[in-house]
Amino acid sequence: MPGTTVNAETGSLSPSPPPPPPIAETPGPRASKLQDVFSHALAHTLKVCSYDNFAACFPTPAKYVSGSLSALWRQMVGKLEEAAKSEFDDIMREREVIPNLNELDRLITEARKRKSRAAEGEVPIPPHTLPPLPLYIAHLAPFLQQTQSQLNARLQTAQSQNAQLASTVNDQRAEIEQLVSGLEEVIADLEGAVESLRPVIGDGSGGEIGRETLEAEAALSAGT
Asked: Does the predicted TM-score (pTM) go above 0.70?
């Protein structure tokens, strides 16, 4: 079921606009600029912390063990650069800086397009000039959209469950029909067997088998 939104001017439901495209993790213009600013600031900081400035703080080791002091300086600068980049990446990830800046870029681009369309003749309606009902409905629109999405999801779930139940019922019906057909075949076989035995057992009075039995009993009685 397609989504709908509330028209702020008429208060009626209308087809909802397509959702905004997903925010990519690739840095946009502002996110790239932020990363460049950080890189330049870090490079400037490390440049200021040169070996000459570092050695000036430790004149005695610089005079007698300059090699060890130089190795210590390189290790300290490397650790400082690594820690700064790691902390910057953690902040960017935890605060979702790139997606948020990309969303800001999208909103600004969309606002510029709207401003351009307005300049071409489309005059936007100031919100304070709208009557109360459209404003009320416009505020309810996000809630109505969310509720409609939930109802659509429930409807799809119910339809899926109904389809599964219908399939189960059809399978059970086919199984019952198969069992009934088997029972009918068994009954037909039994009736055929009874019909084939009628000439032997007669109509209930014993028939030929009954007469032979009576004659045998009479012969035994006469012999005794």
From this structure: no
